[in-house]
Amino acid sequence: AAGRQRGTRASASGPLLSSASAKPIGEGRGSDRIGVKASTSSRLDCRRPPEMAIRRGSSCAVLALLALASVAAVSADVFFQEKFEDGWESRWVKSEWKKDENMAGEWNHTSGKWHGDAEDKGIQTSEDYRFYAISAEYPEFSNKDKTLVLQFTVKHEQKLDCGGGYVKLLGGDVDQKKFGGDTPYSIMFGPDICGYSTKKVHTILTKDGKNHLIKKDVPCETDQLSHVYTLIIRPDATYSILIDNEEKQTGSIYEHWDILPPKEIKDPEAKKVQFGVCL
């Protein structure tokens, strides 16, 4: 999971992976790191999401879950789940990103400013204008004939001026101590808010080392309440984006991302052919 925050406190709960396709197109192998990254001038809070959700960093609790489900099956195989209960620090690696610049912040283990259960805790970015990165491992998996579900909950406890809360699926070769903004990933998903113009859900898929941004504008929530963000990627190359279990966007990955090369390419040397009839 990854995120960026500036100007206010925020809370988020981590990603859920349920169902199969760690890669957007075709069969592949899933990443085996889940990371939380945030740069913030405000605090980031994570709170425990509903069933099959993995949370990400902010000023509340974070719950993480990774699972794979077959197309015909109702149940899913859970590969990673994190409720941030006692012992969570033994499962997560705090990155040293920005530490040499004295810009690395400290994570808090807390239930946040507002909560329904004081024991329902997560990790919180504790200082404004700091950078945060943390990651955890999960087993390798295959996405063949499976559906991938990535889900997490975000809560911004203060009015957010500029920042983002993203979930990232990382590769197994990542140096977790160096996890940061330039670390390669397979998927990035989550809300991005900055000023009046940017209030959307980022969905970026990576293929052959290139990041592809979704071409659709999917508005995100901007209040101070908890919201569940869900990304579903199916083996038939269709996808859905849900907020609070309500579908906000769906369609074909081939149509809504520039992952495949265009069917036609303009030829700057091409000239219009003139046709005439001689009598």
Description:
With 279 residues, the chain is mainly β. The protein has one helix spanning 253-256; strands at residues 2-6, 11-12, 16-17, 33-40, 64-70, 77-82, 92-94, 107-110, 122-125, 130-137, 146-155, 162-170, 185-194, 198-207, 210-213, 226-233, 238-243, 246-252. The protein has a domain at 88-139 and 146-256: Jelly Rolls. The strands form three sheets. Strands 1, 4, 7, 10, 12, 13, 14 and 15 form an eight-stranded antiparallel beta sheet that branches. Strands 2, 3, 5, 6, 11, 16, 17 and 18 form an eight-stranded mixed beta sheet that branches. A two-stranded antiparallel ribbon has the order 8-9. It is globular, with a radius of gyration of 20 Å. Mean pLDDT is 74; it is low at 1-31 and 39-63. GO terms for molecular function: calcium ion binding; unfolded protein binding.
